[in-house]
Automatic annotation (TrEMBL), chains A, B:
Keywords: ATP-binding, Kinase, Magnesium, Metal-binding, Nucleotide-binding, Pyruvate, Transferase. This is Pyruvate, phosphate dikinase. The lineage of its organism: Bacteria, Fusobacteriati, Fusobacteriota, Fusobacteriia, Fusobacteriales. The active site is at H439 (tele-phosphohistidine intermediate), C815 (proton donor). Its cofactor is Mg(2+). Substrate binds at R545, R601, E729, G750, T751, N752, D753.
Amino acid sequence: MKKVYSFNEGNKSMINLLGGKGGNLAEMTKIGLPIPEGIIISTQACKDYYKDGEKISKVLEDEILVKLDELQKQTGKNFGGKNPLLVSVRSGAPISMPGMMDTILNLGLNDKTAQYMIEVFKDSDFVYQSYYRFIQMFSEIVMGIDKEIFFDLKKEMLEKDNYTHQQLIKAGKEKYREITGHDFPEEPKEQLFMAINAIFKSWNNERAKIYRNIHKIDDNLGTAVVVQQMVFGNLNEKSGTGVAFTRDPSSGENHIFGEYLLKAQGEDIVAGIRTPEPIEKLKEQLPDVYIEFSKLAKKLEQHNKDMQDIEFTIENGKLYLLQTRNGKRSPYAAVKIAVDMVEEGLLTKEEAIMKVDASTLPQLLHGNFKQEAIEKAVLLGKGLPGSAGVAIGRVMFSAERADIRAMTILVREETSPEDIKGISLAQGIVTVKGGVTSHGAVVARGMGKCCVTGCAAIKINDIKREMYIGGYTVKEGDFISISGYTGEIYLGKVELSAPQFDKNLKKFVKWCQDIKRLKVRMNADTPADAKLGKSFGAEGIGLCRTEHMFFQKDKIWTIRQMILSNEPKEVKAALEKMHQMQKEDFKNIFTVVEEGTVIVRLLDPPLHEFLPKEAKDKQKMAEILGVSLEEIERRIVNLKDENPMLGHRGCRLAVTRPELYNMQARAIIEAAIECIKNGCTKLLPEIMLPLIIGAKELQFIKRNIEGEIKRVLQENNINIEYKIGTMMETPRACLLADEIARDVDFFSFGTNDLTQTTMGLSRDDSVKFMTEYYENGILKVEPFATIDERGVGKLVKLATELGRRTKPELEIGICGEHGGDPQSIDFFESVKLDYVSCSPFRVLVAIVAAAQAKLKAYKGIDYKWI
Amino acid sequence: MKKVYSFNEGNKSMINLLGGKGGNLAEMTKIGLPIPEGIIISTQACKDYYKDGEKISKVLEDEILVKLDELQKQTGKNFGGKNPLLVSVRSGAPISMPGMMDTILNLGLNDKTAQYMIEVFKDSDFVYQSYYRFIQMFSEIVMGIDKEIFFDLKKEMLEKDNYTHQQLIKAGKEKYREITGHDFPEEPKEQLFMAINAIFKSWNNERAKIYRNIHKIDDNLGTAVVVQQMVFGNLNEKSGTGVAFTRDPSSGENHIFGEYLLKAQGEDIVAGIRTPEPIEKLKEQLPDVYIEFSKLAKKLEQHNKDMQDIEFTIENGKLYLLQTRNGKRSPYAAVKIAVDMVEEGLLTKEEAIMKVDASTLPQLLHGNFKQEAIEKAVLLGKGLPGSAGVAIGRVMFSAERADIRAMTILVREETSPEDIKGISLAQGIVTVKGGVTSHGAVVARGMGKCCVTGCAAIKINDIKREMYIGGYTVKEGDFISISGYTGEIYLGKVELSAPQFDKNLKKFVKWCQDIKRLKVRMNADTPADAKLGKSFGAEGIGLCRTEHMFFQKDKIWTIRQMILSNEPKEVKAALEKMHQMQKEDFKNIFTVVEEGTVIVRLLDPPLHEFLPKEAKDKQKMAEILGVSLEEIERRIVNLKDENPMLGHRGCRLAVTRPELYNMQARAIIEAAIECIKNGCTKLLPEIMLPLIIGAKELQFIKRNIEGEIKRVLQENNINIEYKIGTMMETPRACLLADEIARDVDFFSFGTNDLTQTTMGLSRDDSVKFMTEYYENGILKVEPFATIDERGVGKLVKLATELGRRTKPELEIGICGEHGGDPQSIDFFESVKLDYVSCSPFRVLVAIVAAAQAKLKAYKGIDYKWI
């Protein structure tokens, strides 16, 4: 099998074999762009290299030399001889990766070829500069010598009186020998094979391995090596080098955007020694080149059907393109470019939909810090990105002191349901413990608030009301700025950019809605949530949690009384009060939703969560119930679970206390009847049971609830449609889904809990040790952020198949955190769920991801993020 | 299809159709025993009855009447006419069940047939007594009238001066009309159909439904009805009735054992109004009958190949058998009878093995309270049977006060690892909280100690050192007696019977060992455990938990130091100390086991469990580490998990702190090397990793451990065989078993944790609410006692198949609590595991159950417990 290719032997479809750089260069050559000639040593050669014990085989060596001969013929230049062929050598994996060996320029120079170069270019300054740069880059890239050593050496030499270029070169080579113990390789072919060897080796350096681990890149892809004829941007004033985008990557505006330097090689721009000029200036300096570049840029964009990021070099007035790739862009630009390209006729809507990374969309709704402001700000520390958005506010360490006017950022060891009100009043939340699916993060996402979780670097001193982080002491009332995109925490106020939910985004989302198959519902517990999610396009409510309703100050005492009283009369009275409150809550939500599905999950958390924690609240409770404080404490302790996640919660509450769910079912149906009578005739209330483990359990509870509903309908002399379904959040329920399906109208996977039980892993506790799991490559995805397809997903797939086998019309969806995660949505599309449900601020993400998932699944259209 | 059968048309194999009684009567008829003739209305008729809306169809009625005609011809008697045919009517389900309608005797009597009876028997007393009994039984069984009403009525009538039999009958019928509003049915056929109807209806009464639920009996079996010619034990002094066993059900001795009454009907024995005579006395009173009975009893035993429990009636010197069934017997007798019957040539060893209920065997090892002593004792309350055996001792409420000489029964709210030493010194353990697989119960079973858990009726007052239970106050130091078989707690000392591990049991177990396929290993953490289990026949250790080793007083401080210190040097020193301790522990255990497998599970519990809980211990810890008490408390809190079961434990400890498992692996291999050098050349140490969730995690840990082992082997210049395996205790591990199998030598299902995660159910917390699950028939088995085959079992089966698909030679076993449960062992045999492992005192149970499971699976031999 062939392992070495000329540029004109390849094309873009061969990226797996030729690497990203190689494939693109071949493609550009194919469409007739001015590309300096070159050859590509394939990724297969790299794989062989490792198979052969990290050696370049004789066979490969010979193949490279044959191609090198061809290159000499094509260019009319000689590698190591007169009219010298110099080359750049670069790595080029199929997927772009930092940490790999980068670029060596001017390879092929030695004392002899330097003289030949002077003969050709008549400019010894240029040649020796190039020669020294080669020595420096070779030393750095191949031998790992810090380039600063060569900068210092050059400075030192320049200060000498009798400085000559030759002396500098000699000193450089001596430095090389001093450090490596070997002579600097004079022979160009030796230089070349050392460089190729180093690039192959760099595929497995630590940084590259970690990067692949984090970005889920297959360790067996291997890298290609691109060997390309040098062109010289540093030759004279009619030469130069630059980088440009075909559109503005920040605003998305359709004009060339970039910068360049005359009399410079590519490294000069990256190194930042000289300040580059904006591309517009080239129009004045080299107008012909600018016109040609504009033409080629457009051609490349048309050809690749995407905004391009192009590297170019001008050698003595002639333009060469060195590299092109799809350009990175801001979320705002991504949407605008996608929409513009459809309107320009360049893309179909389907293609355009694939061009936007759905997960970045919340940034458009929340705004973000300005990049330049971040660069100047003091970074205190970094936690996990708990909920998207940014926030600026004053640190408060107690939920009770949170104040909406004072711009609070609530900083807590961790949050509990008692903090809900404080969270609702805060600009943002920071927790020391807990992961991206901890209580604080979930509540924050639900409320669309920015949240940073698990910032273990913070030490809070509650007594002094201050915290210590990153060497700073931050007192309560001091300003900080936090980013829920990155988890970063800054001192003081960092300047903001504005939110950007504009007409382009609206248009884009509409296309996605038209194309997607999965329904997108929202998780909403309040009328405000429901209103927000609806405005983003949610198709009803997929999860309305009833427990959050009780955490409002006045309601909590009623449920506490219901739980803690031993007097049947008191319990009954409390239940009746809860019934009235819940009915009111449901009416308010139903009224906002107006029509379609509202799935209400009956009470789920352990009752213990509702109970007073502070002494004064316990005392108050004792007074309300007329028993001793000791007795209250005893009752509270009795209700405590060792493992609350696996304890007395969910539908288990309704097995021991059927009156609880009966009350809730009554409130839901009564509220629905009133709303339907008031004109919401298309409202469809659906009742969902949490934590089911088997069919008999479900039947028992359903029988009770349906009895109650029948009574409500009789009392009101009306018949309305309603559904009863179950959450699927225990492995056992999934394993027995065929039996469970018989008695329900729908399944809703609770993938948070299902992940916890399937992996035997508490999401709150996991943050304490999961870092090591990611660092050691044991887990590649955060299983509470992106569904663990191979484990948890296997159960989802199994349960879906079993459920539909029993009842083909069964509606099946998911309402865990994964409902708003694009990669997870891909999976849910692949197993043909009917809907996903996510927090209001993730609705747009889910709509776009659902459209993309469908296109991938049905049309084979895919897209690799740059 | 035929629905009504004469006795001579059936046999024992038709029990599903004819019910247990009917099938047996037909069988006895078939082999020529003196059985009063009769007919059987089949279970199919019962099913039809329910299908037809609880009605006896005309077709069935006609079929019954045809058979009734035949019966009249066979007996030469007339139903409702001269020479009257009287019948008994009984229910007879395929499985014996209390709660069903029982027996009606003398059906067919009315004023006219009573006169005809007097004509036949010339004894009006006898006839009217029978008549009144019929009215009473019919009223009770068919109409649900309390029989006491008829006893009272009779007493009242007898006191009257002008008492006549006729008046009594009339008064009885009037009472019937007064209560039911209907006349007592005079027509015998009406009586018969009312009785049949009542029996069919009783199949679905509440008590029967609950019983079926608890005993996992199919609700659709239905009951048969047996209608049989009456014979009269109450006719004269040469008549009588009795019950006898073919062997002594308590000692197993091979002689007839039973009792009888002359001039009595069966009811008289049951009612307990007259005291029956021992069967030996019949030899004097009716020698011919006794000889015939002895002959028939032996014949029945030979025919049924089991000890029989026979009901008989003598009418005027003629012996009739009314019923026979396999007799209930004590565990001791069960073993003796099984062994004797093999030696008598009556049973094969295989058949004998099936005759013993394996789960009762621990009683033979522990002894039990004498029945007569229990009847006299004060029952204080009842918890759950946590660990088999009985114990008598003084109540102590603190593990620190437990004293082996003082005969302590430790009574705790719940036990924690800190109580281990106290438990080891106690006679028995009682906990207020926790189920049969709670910490206390597991530890107790491991130590072979009696334990009662979850006795919620106990209120402990730690300050007064007393507890309140069942209306009594029991002070520390008072004696109580507890039964780990029943969960019962008695006041004072209850007299004991002796343990009975005799030659019969040894012989029986040997047969089982020869036949079983599953290996039976023991769970043993100490040399004492290992010695005990080995004496019962355990084939090595299937689970040696390393954590328990650290709870001995002097060792706990070392591990605490290792956990809590932040000084690398201190941590290292503590680890080294632990290493030496562990090595010593392993050497001691290996030395006892001598040869074969010892599976050591590396550290499993959350580190938090080892930390000090009491203030003085925290203070001591602070002093040891030279930091503030506040700092110690902070470190302890930081290590606490919200859900310890799903938290930082198991192999997760080795991902964050690889040195821990490395140290343990070193200690195991070093200990093994020393033992092997000392002559235990066949010792095979196996290292087991807990809580694995995936292949990469396993590889990461295995790589570390194997590196350490390699170093140990090099240091010792030796090569020994060892294995590395994994526990399978998370659903994810089961789902990915094919990948995991690649890197291990064995799987060991940890079905305790696997049950918890699969069901999302904490075993300790579940006791608070599972009662309602059993009462409402939602769960039929306690999933921590008997494996949940349909849920958890599905994962076990899947993982076994996946694992073997990757590696056919993979050894697969189970080391959860289910390893000692016969029903679970049946399941493990059916999925072809290689071994089970259980606590030493369950080893015998497991050996017998494994033999039975194999016989069931391979030879189709089965046995229904009586």
